[in-house]
Every structure is written in structure tokens, then in C-alpha cells.
Batch of 2 targets.
Target 1
Amino acid sequence: MLTISKPLSASQAQTYHEREFASEKQNYWSRDQQGHSEWQGKLADQWKLAGAVESEHFALLSEGQHPHTAEQLVRHQVSRTYEGKFGKEVTSAEHRAGWDATFSAPKSVSLTAFVGGDERVREAHRESVRTALRELERYTQARIGNVHAPETTGKLLLPLLNTIPHVQLMATPPRSFTPMLSSST
């Protein structure tokens, strides 16, 4: 199952990444030595992002900037309040850095992988997430400019933040999931 959050601002995305994945003291991924990340998507290939998701690259991308040159790729829109067409107060959204998305495995998969200790099931979950994201990428759209209709680009940049499916032991029964942040850059 895929669960997607409301859009995250740049500061929300950076805080989430720092708190949950980059800080060894605070995140539960590093406590059990299972915190692994990787870049995925055609834009990751195009921009030569490979291996672990580095905080510096993540921060630049969440601000709409190129991960190596810091060139501004996405024009920031700050939140503002104005009177709408029918006299109602409207507050616009600020720049959306991305969305928190989580792939959750069915309970039977989680039980087989973690309680049964079957590494093949964990690997199958990892590969199914990668396959789903490659398929999703084919339909990716971007709005090039504020007033233009969305265009199909077929390019995504995805920091997969835990490529080893994690078991949530406090859940009854245990459940396996793989989180990622989808970038709108």
C-alpha cells in the first residue's frame, strides 16, 4: 500500500530528513543499524546522484535548487493571504518541496519477512518498491511555469530513505514499510 502525505514545505522536508534519517542519536533507523538510503529516478541519473542520500544534496533539492550547483530550478512561492474572487480570504500555498510517501507491505509479508526471518521476502519488498517507482515515473508531470498546464516529463528524483524494509515492532502484528520523500524539483 502507498500512503502519501500532504505537501511538505522545504523546512518541513529538511526537518523530517534530519530528525528521522540523518541524526544517529534521534532516529530509530540507526538504532537498529537498518538505516540505508539511495537515490532513484531518471533525474538522479541525470544529476549523477548515487548511493546514500546526503543531507547537503537533500537540503538544496528541498529548496528547489540543483544538488551540485545550487542553481535555483524552482521559483519559490511564499504563502500570502489575499481577498479572493467572491470576497473570501484566501491563503496561497508556499513552495512544495515534496511529499512523504510510504510503501507498506501486507501483514502476511511483514510476518514472513521479520518473524519468519525470510530475507528473500525482504528483498522482494525492496524490489517491488523500486519497480513501482519506475512505473510511477513514466506518468510524472510537472507544471513548467505557474500558468501552464502540467506536462508529462517522465522524470522523478526520489530519495528512498530506508531501502531495507523496516519492521515496526510496536505494531501488532509487526508491519514492514519503506519511506521516501518525493521531490517536486
Target 2
Amino acid sequence: MLSELPGDEASGPAAPGDSPGEYGQGFSWVEGEPGSLEEVIEAAFDYRGDVTVLLKDGQELAGYLANRSIGDEGSSESWIEVFPASGDPRRRIPNAQLGGFRFSGKDVASGKSWETWLKKYTERKEAIARGEEVENIDLFPEEHG
């Protein structure tokens, strides 16, 4: 399962032996490491930043993993589609050509969960109650004064 792969904690890139966690910027996986290609493809698909696809022929392609199809293991029907960061046309790559992944781009939605917003909102309201100047994080600005 994905949760068994080493991941990136908020403190930095993943390293061998890290405890399971989020698949954030810095996470990497190459063929032969624990976990399966299909599991890593799913994690890369869920990641909201660019990934670097490591191809078996030594090429690397940085971009956004926008689509994937997982057929039977080794099936020619298994592929990923990547929108290259370079702006080149979308590429469809058979899974048989994949040698690994690096989560190389920043996850643009990292830290933007409802829980994070609610915590900031609550802290802001408490600061206002103490009479402190605060930055507006509301969906709809409030008038103070």
C-alpha cells in the first residue's frame, strides 16, 4: 500500500528509513525500491505539483501527471500522460518505460486545507479580540472600526 512507502514530512525531503507520511516535494522512488510502480503512479497523480518522470532509457521529463491508465501488470494498456513543464505537447508514456519518479515541484495546495484555514481564522479572531493588527484571511473582508 502507499502508506508503506517512505514519504516527505513537512520538515524536508524523503530519505530511506523515513516513517510513512505524505508524498510531498522531495519524495522519490526508483524501480527496485519498496512499493510498486502503480502505487507511486497513484501518489504522483494525487500530488498537486510537478513530478520528474525517470525513464528507463535515462531521460527525465518534468511536468504535471495529468492522467493515467493502469491495466493488468505489464499490460501495454498501462500508461501515464504528462504535461511537460517546458510547455511541450502532452506526452503519453507506457508504464513499461517508467523507471521512477521524483516529486520535484512544490505542491501548490500544500497547507491550504480547511483545518489550516480554520486555525488561522481562529488565531486571527483571537488577535483582533486582543486589539492586535492582523492580516485579513477571510473569504469576505470585514470592516473594523
